[in-house]
Amino acid sequence: MGTISLTELGSKLAGLMFIWGTIQQFFPYTLRKRIKSFWQKFENYFYPYVQITIDEFTNGKSNDIYTQVHSYLGTKSINKDAKYLKAEKSKNSKSFAVSLDEGEEIIDQFLGAKLSWRFYKETFNENSSGRNNSRPIEKKSYTITFNQRYKEMVIGKYLKHVMEEGKVIEFNNRKQKIYTNNCSEDWYWYDKGMWRDINFEHPATFDTLAMDPKKKEEIVIDLVAFSKGKDYYSKVGKAWKRGYLLYGPPGTGKSTMIAAIANFLNYDIYDLELTSVKDNSGLKKLLMETTSKSIIVIEDIDCSIDLTGKRKKKKKKNEETVNEDQEDDSDLSKEKASENKETGKLTLSGLLNFIDGIWSACGQERIIIFTTNHKDKLDPALIRRGRMDMHIEMSYCKYEAFKVLAKNYLDIETHPLFQQIQSLFEEVNISPCDVAENLMLKNASGGPEICLNNLIQALEKAKEKANKDKEDKEKTSLNSKNIKKFSTKLVGRLKKLLK
């Protein structure tokens, strides 16, 4: 039997199609419709698959779906049997990413469906410019092939799942940033926007944070609940944000706590310097340029700018005429009228609106953190629940926190000197910063015992100073009592003489 060439086969198929088209003209419309329906069923039986193409660019713009599919398949390709892969790394990524090479196939499964992914790349020259040395253009795309009975599920659920997973992978692989607002007169400093940024590479974690373990666990549980609370916040009708007030003496780890929270949630940090903000309008513009999944920090808020002086004066004046019980915290409703008359100035009401007003809902999944050494100096309206939802006291170092520092700096969990140190911690107030300085190895020959002895000496000096201060205070108090007693007797004698 002779072989048939592709040319002859194509010619015969074309002839059959022509004859079939001619014959159809003599069939009634209803019969043609039934034949067409039967043919489609026959075709679907032998090739019951649907293919969806996802291009890198659509209408000249970047296709977000392509980027998320690229990230999603990168993790899948490591766990599957794909053999031809590519490794890529961008400057904004923590590590390299693996992706499919051209023509490689990977099989994914979802809700019982089997789905085939392939990557395609087409390279061609653009001759519209008329230059021979024009750079070649690459057209990249992914195709997904699946049985048509899963079409509704793939479009309705699977692609959504791929996009969400891709977003998470992109977010976790990006480099964290720390931003600061521009101090320039011109907000858009050299066209770089209102924020400048650098990579955030602080190593602090909750494991290395010197803090009471129970309090630490409480904070971690709260952060986890917040990060997973999208549906809950939507249900109760609140913006997806949370406020934390960190307060306590200097050196107790407030800034380290912020770094630990950022690393735990993988959020960016916006360090807001209020003294550089001109007015309420400028504050709103800064807020609009922050991203979701971020932490907005105002450190030492009691020192940043005087926002409470006018309120305190009004409160004192009102107390002369109005009962104190009748005064409530109504977000400065009495002060707003006078503050609105002032232009070109940052006001307390502007800051409150920034925290939990309408403008605070312009982004999602954000944490606002205030730090202060003097909680009592802050206006109650600024730190009430709902604005600063969780008040976290960063206290002096105690024995449990010391053990964390000993593990961090000396890599030890127990030592014979720990018992003496524990008894001293019960009598002395010392900051974690001072404890860490004494535990730090100053030279190669130093060992854990030398550092622990240094800490004991520091604790004993602090104890002596605390005892001396206590004695001086008692003497001062005793002298004051004696002077008062003597004055009382003297007044009594003078009264008798005058009689």
Automatic annotation (TrEMBL):
InterPro entries: AAA+_ATPase (IPR003593), AAA_N_dom (IPR025753), At3g28540-like_C (IPR058017), ATPase_AAA_core (IPR003959), ATPase_AAA_CS (IPR003960), Mitochondrial_chaperone_BCS1 (IPR050747), P-loop_NTPase (IPR027417). Gene3D superfamilies: 6.10.280.40, P-loop containing nucleotide triphosphate hydrolases. GO terms for molecular function: ATP binding; ATP hydrolysis activity. One of its GO terms (biological process) is response to stress. Its cofactor is Mg(2+). It catalyses: ATP + H2O = ADP + phosphate + H(+). It comes from the Eukaryota. Keywords: ATP-binding, Hydrolase, Magnesium, Nucleotide-binding. PANTHER family: BCS1 AAA-TYPE ATPASE. Belongs to the AAA ATPase family. BCS1 subfamily. This is AAA-ATPase At3g28610-like.
